[in-house]
Amino acid sequence: MSKNVSRRKFIAGSTVLAAAAQGLKPAPEVQASPGCPADWKPFMNQYYDGMMDIIHSIRDTQVGVIAQSMKKAWELKQKSGTLYANVVYGHFGTYYASQQRPGQPWVLPSYTTLTKEQIDAMKAWDFLITNIVDDARKQARERGVYVVGVTNNYFKFRETAPGGLREDRMQLSVEEMGNAVINSFTPWNNGLVTAPQVPQFKLCPSTGTVQAAVYWACSASLANLIGTKGKGSGSEPAALYLDLTLERFRCIGADMPKIDRVASTMAALVLEKHARLFVYGEPFPVDGDRTGNMFVTDAVGAASGSMIAQGYKAEDVRENDIVLIGSVRSNQPQEMEIAQASRKKGAYTLAFCPFSADGDASGTRLYKEVDVAFNTYSDESEGVIAVEGFDKKVCPLTGLTGNFVHWLLIAQWTEHMARRGEMPYYWQGFHETGGREYDNSVRPYFMKRGY
User: Fold this and answer.
1) What is the distance between the alpha carbons of residues 278 and 261, in angstroms, rounded to a whole number?
2) How many CB atoms lie within 10 A of CB 379?
3) Each residue of 249-303: pLDDT tens digit?
């Protein structure tokens, strides 16, 4: 679908219908954004194809590395080594692996932060998988800690462009730090959307979703090794997790015409009704009393993300605003109350969530309480991988599929804004060369326009 040039005529028709349903002016007949070539690929298609390519690449080339790394982790655990996971860069990464997350086997305990003191206290036979690159982690490896690095856009790796990151991030690479490296195929400049209106960087981040895919694939591998006392496969559970990720992403891809219609309506609301975008999701406890939501933290203020998104505040929502609710379970009372209250105020309410729980769609559900809902096609109440020694399936997909829907929607909303000659402002990462300066220069314009 993404490479079918005739798709534009289809999109044009769906855009008119969506706008008419909301009592808004339809967008002009769909054209490529200003400055685009004749064979231009819409932003959501760029994002879809980019993410599918990344997960395919991990599946095709990195399963062996994952299995070998987790075999090492299991062996060190047998020698009384302590296992640490610190795959947290990318805003999504702060909360997706909370210990309280349904389906989390906690075989790779996830630390949101590891201080230098904590790292310095690690001993030989300990194991650390991390996507942060620094001297403390390199020194840990040198004294016997087994360090597995995961490539990402925030730190230097072999594909980082010369001078692409700020100077302090260019001093040490993940390859120089780790005993082993898992290539996440996250592009060094993070975004998956090339917009001619913003040549400085790419839009719509991939990092959080991809880093989560690597972490859960590793967790599935290690859980199977632990459950089988080292006799089971380390590669098959990781491969299955990635295969399921691709399968669910394809299901979501079939809904892209619907995503396009909703994105067009969102653009009309922003331009004609001065709508703001609020994002909410159920909080997960992290590091004791810290709580937050993986979807919200990726939507609000992330590198390569749109400036328009802000955290939900009930008192700020007004008529014609857009309220986006991300859920991993769809039957949480607080999420449904927020949807109901927002609709009562006249806001345009959206949700992405599973439409059932383990096949059961009965009862009150979030998707029944909003104007439009997107199915994340991940209805498992726990994880998706069955492994020996664990009572429930491990390693959830709801976070990955939910975030995928979210960025497809934002990418296509941006496309519709650009078609109307109103390209929205985006954040460039502070870690990129010139990122902070760029953000400081455009932020006043965003504050004036609101998008």
Assistant:
1) 19
2) 19
3) 999 999 999 999 999 999 999 999 999 999 999 898 887 667 899 999 999 999 9
DSSP 3-state assignment of 441? helix
Q: How many CB atoms within 10 Å of residue 382?
A: 18
55-108: pLDDT as tens digits: 999 999 999 999 999 999 999 999 999 999 999 998 999 899 999 899 999 999
Cross-strand partners of 350: 324, 372
User: Over 70: is that where the pLDDT of 18 sits?
Assistant: no
Which residues does 150 contact at the CB level (< 8 Å), separation at least 6?
A: 87, 129, 130, 131, 174, 181, 182, 184, 211, 214
Cα separation, 36 vs 424, whole angstroms: 16
- What single letter denotes the amino acid at residue 271? L
**How many of the other CB atoms lie within 10 Å of CB of 132?**
21
DSSP string over 162-222: TT-B-GGGSS--HHHH-SEEE-----TT-EEE--TT-TTS-EEE-HHHHHHHHHHHHHHHH
Architecture of domain 7-37+255-449: 3-Layer(aba) Sandwich (3.40)
Say if residues 275 and 268 touch (Cβ distance below 8 Å).
no
The first and second tokens of residue 155, run together, are: 């730190």
Contact 428, 200 (CB under 8 A): yes
pLDDT value, residue 34: 59
CA gap 376, 249 in Å, rounded: 9
Give the pair of three-digit tokens for residue 223. 């859980």
Which residues lie below 8 Å from residue 322, measured CB to CB, with a gap of 6+? 266, 269, 270, 275, 276, 277, 278, 347, 348, 350
With cut-offs at 50, 70 and 90, classify the pLDDT of residue 28. Answer: very low
> What is the architecture, at CATH level 2, of domain 45-247?
3-Layer(aba) Sandwich (3.40)
User: Are the folds of 7-37+255-449 and 45-247 the same?
Assistant: yes
Q: State the pLDDT at residue 436.
A: 97
The full set of domain ranges for the chain reads 7-37+255-449, 45-247
User: 156 and 127 in contact (C-beta within 8 Å)?
Assistant: no
